[in-house]
Amino acid sequence: MKPHQISALKFLLENEDAQNNKPESLWYHHDNAWLRSYFEEDSNSSAEERNDNRSQGSILADDMGLGKTLTTLAFILATSNNGRTTLVICPLATLSNWKNEIDLHFRDHAIPYKVFHGDDWKSLSREDLQSTMLILTTYEMIGTSGNKKHPSRHNIGALDLFWFRIVFDEADLIRNAATNRTQSIQNLQCQFVLCLTGTPVQNQLTDLQSLITLLKIHPWDQEWIWRSCLVPRMK
Q: Can you supply one Gene Ontology CC term for this chain's record (predicted)?
């Protein structure tokens, strides 16, 4: 691995470290005193229970071509002793790249994985999905097929599983919070989230909102914070 990938790996490990109790510096920055005051006085927030100020994961925003996939795989391997499963959701176009990177850089099945896409999903049981170190799937498998009464087995969200970590490759694809896909993704259950994107902001700063919501970065994951405080100041 290259130096920037090793630095990124350390960053990812630190963000999931239970002993890392450092407060989010952005929230306590002096420029945001106005927002803290607004938040504390708002009647809607008074009933909210403050969390421990730790985000539930990371955004890895290295430029394209700098090896985010390899860094992520090294991260998954480094935390494999927890015995829990990481779900990687990627565009169909990059699915083969994930498989190739595993086969190229990790020998002797160091990262056992299964693919939940196409015909491959039919051979997978719930036990397979929860006992394998890495599950690869695509955004096409996180749709809204079926319904609550008769969920589609093609939809991995309908399986109602709890994942240790979910990795979103090309996470900028879920920047629009109003789409069915983004809403389905936000219903997935996990302990940690890792967003991979070379373009976390494409058109406007609000592109970050969906990613921050997934990461549960308090209080920035609150819709009213964006609507009432942040968006007006962007105009």
A: nucleus
Q: Which pTM was predicted?
A: 0.81
Distance of CA 40 to the CA centre of its chain: 28
Instruction: Read off φ and ψ for residue 11, nearest 5 degrees.
Output: -60, -45
Provide the number of structural domains found in the chain: 1
Average pLDDT over residues 19-38: 65
In a domain, 26, yes or no: no
**208 vs 46 pLDDT, higher one:** 208
In the chain, helix, strand, coil percent, each to 5?
Answer: 50, 15, 35
Spatial CB neighbours of 220, under 8 Å, sequence gap ≥ 6: 26, 27, 212, 226
Structural domain boundaries enclosing 125: 51-234
> For residue 90, what are the CA distances in angstroms to 97, 117, 171?
10, 11, 8
Q: What is the CATH number of the domain that holds 82?
A: 3.40.50.10810
